[in-house]
Amino acid sequence: MLECVMILQDTHDVKTFCFQTTDNSWFRYLPGQFITIELEIDGKPVLRTYTLSSSPSRPLSISITVKANKDGYASRWLHENLKEGDKIKAHGPAGLFTLHNHMADKYLFISGGAGITPTLSMTRWLFDYGIHTDVHFIHCARTPSDIIARRELESMSARVSDIKVAFACEEPDPYGAWTGYTGRLNQLMLELISPDYQDREIFCCGPAPFMQAVRDILNAAGFNMDQYHEESFDAPIIEEEDRPDHDDVIIDDDAKSSVTFTKSKKDTRVQESDTILAAAKKTGLHIPSACQFGVCGTCKVKKISGEVHMVHNGGITQEQIDDGYVLACCSNPLGDVVIDF
């Protein structure tokens, strides 16, 4: 049985709930693990898993950091009803998403939104133990006001040179200056923030599309995915056999594709590892381009049919992608593709 002893407001829709045992026992767990709490809502038991955002180096209490999602039945109840002095049942800890299972000299922690909780726990543990471990910490949020534990992370980074922190926000606050990275995390940002990421053990947590984007970046860069570990919001991993098999697109150098340019009435056979831009050059066509890294958006063309795998760096909006546009410089054809050019 846990007793809520403190509630902290982290952002406008995120709270941290701190608990102690009713008999003042100490807690033992690994940083990054989760617990399952049992709530009684409308007379019915509701079970939810939450990662511990606290560190086992501070064993007198544990904390969960919870975002009140619009459709979150339990999360909204916690925000609106749980108060100091209330008692709840909890089970655990459990989970394999912890640096203790993959000890290394250098880490890269990548998180999106409320997915910061396990990487925050691991960073707090490393900071408290004073171990000289090289950590690059990247957190992505919608706005600067949505960054959880921003001041604490900046303070840890200021005091310990081994911990380097970077934030990326999709957009700035309406009435505040933002000098950090803007936009969604991409390969260019990753290389600027952590130039040696290829040598690091990477831990990633966030919404499923966010983690898919991170895996796409790493796969495109030829990263050794044995050094990549992630935790899902929907299905926390308890046992090794629970790990999902990701259906990620891996470009096959031996696979052939066909690219047709309708307006120019030209077509060609290329390898999957060739881009649409390379296919155009092979036929003698000139698609205007500049950076050739998915940043500037100069090579934007419309795809009429077929599938491509595109890993860009901010040179195209989601609305344009939904309308069928791709960046020729960073789009690999998968099978037969028809381009309006």
From TrEMBL:
SUPFAM superfamilies: 2Fe-2S ferredoxin-like, Ferredoxin reductase-like, C-terminal NADP-linked domain, Riboflavin synthase domain-like. Keywords: 2Fe-2S, FAD, Flavoprotein, Iron, Iron-sulfur, Metal-binding, Oxidoreductase. The keyword Iron applies. InterPro entries: 2Fe-2S_ferredoxin-like_sf, 2Fe-2S_ferredoxin-type, 2Fe2S_fd_BS, Beta-grasp_dom_sf, Cbr1-like_FAD-bd_dom, FAD-bd_FR_type, FNR_nucleotide-bd, MRET. Its cofactor is FAD. The keyword Magnesium does not apply. Residues 257-341 form the 2Fe-2S ferredoxin-type domain. Residues 1-100 form the FAD-binding FR-type domain. One of its GO terms (molecular function) is 2 iron, 2 sulfur cluster binding. Transmembrane segments: none annotated. In the N-terminal section; belongs to the FAD-binding oxidoreductase type 6 family. This is NADH oxidase. It comes from Kiloniella litopenaei.
